[in-house]
Amino acid sequence: MVMPTLKQYQRWFCEAARQEDQELPNSQLISAVSAGGKLSQTEALDVYRTGHIVRLTEALGETFEAVWWVAGDNAFFQLAKDYILSHPSSVYNLSAYGDRFPDFLAQNNPFPDLPFLSELARFEWLFKETFHVRQHEAVSSQAIIAMEPMEILRFSFGPSAHLFSSPYTVYETWKLRGTDQKDGTEFWKDQAEYLFLYKKHHQIFVNTLQYSEYKILSALLSGASIEESVSSVAAQCPEMDQPRLQVFFQLLVYTGSIEKIFTG
Amino acid sequence: MSPKPCDHHKETQFSCADIGVGLRPTHYPYLETRPPTRVRWFEAISENYMDSEGRPLAMLELIRSDYPVALHGVSLSIASAEGLRPHYLAQLKKLTDRIEPFLVSDHLCWTGLNPSNLHDLLPIPFSEEALQLILKHVDQVQTTLGRQILLENVSTYIQPRGSVYTEWEFLTAVATQSGCRLLLDVNNLYVNARNHHFDPMIFLDAIPAHLIGQVHLAGYTDMGTYLFDTHSRPVYPPVWELFEHLIGRIPNVPILIEWDEDIPDFPILEQEALKAAQIWETHYGHADSEAVPTMVL
Prior knowledge:
B: TIM Barrel, two-stranded antiparallel sheet, 10 helices, 15 strands
């Protein structure tokens, strides 16, 4: 028999590892290997095929813990398997696998009564990304207060600072993951949610914002000055009067999410 | 801070039973308290730290400030017929420059082909084609990193036909001809011996001692029809026996207990590591013995 080249063997092997349960591996691959233990060649190749699915399912389960909790074991494992077979991993780090899982869920949600599943996945992916971002050194509140006039200040935020908005209360659902509060209670709402994620002392914090606060912070994150940020929402959010703005900015400074300040 | 029994190891001079364990996230909360331990070094999975600036890297740097650290990769894919990934090598180089590990290792295998990384340690034929490819890749890695690497023998459940070498001949040829060294996993060796029906002692005795730069020990799972390399159990007696046979030839090689599934509390893992130290001591006396030559890594 003519032996395949190394590349041909590896190509066949990859194809076999990504087959559905009932499919038999390429007959040329079967002929090109001998099996270990008391296994047949097909059974031995299946050890690798199964292991591939299990490993990537575990990786998805670690990142999308709340999606798993909401979907339940059987549905999550099936979703994971469908995703794995249609989205091969091109990353070398297992924890980086799953970037397209939120979009996949948007198109393949088996639960019409749980429309927020892909939004929840999107939040979990952002949370995972935030986890791996460096902890910046926050500029002190004294340094910010000392700057005059405040209106012209612009901020550079630490790399962990991210805004997240969703038409559903995904953060509230996420906080319940792993509990038994899924049955019999309303664990999600069809209600918009605005979030600010950041790291402080190597811990991730999630603050729930009002829409007006979200808009101001969005402007600040894009490099606008305080004055520009506030005026950009003034017409839409008349409730953001001076006292509320003051509290908002005090809380923002307290988060420690600001890495640098600029004037002008 | 509690005194560390092995602070001298910061100098990475190994002169006694050099027992290490894998650094795993499960143990971060415990290790963050910087408890006194009897392990002398830690092995970190390279990929877990290559693209992270978060808590994992902070933890690795904390450990590194107290212990020697080895970096052990799982995705180098040294036998990939598509070649090595430049970005991967660049990230590994960045990490090794930052951590200054005393060893850098990966596996003698491939892990997938673009666009399908299977995240597994996959078997290669022990052929001339594979040997030449691996020699080229080892040279590329060692040149990029500016240091020697170690390659580990992997557990397999199939064997591609077309081999012209035995596994031990192939490992020896790779190390001898490339200038790398071997990370000998005694558990993997035993798993393969059972799965592929050869005498593990022949394998052990065939590997020249000077090529072995590190030893791994772990537990497998007996699936009935084959042995499965799960790293989910204590080391089994036949693997301890092989280790005992091996250790007589390699007095100054770092030894690591791997435990990756159903990971026990750190003190239990430490106890498992100390079993290896006890076996070492039956050959060479107590760890402080001056009779044992010092190997400077």
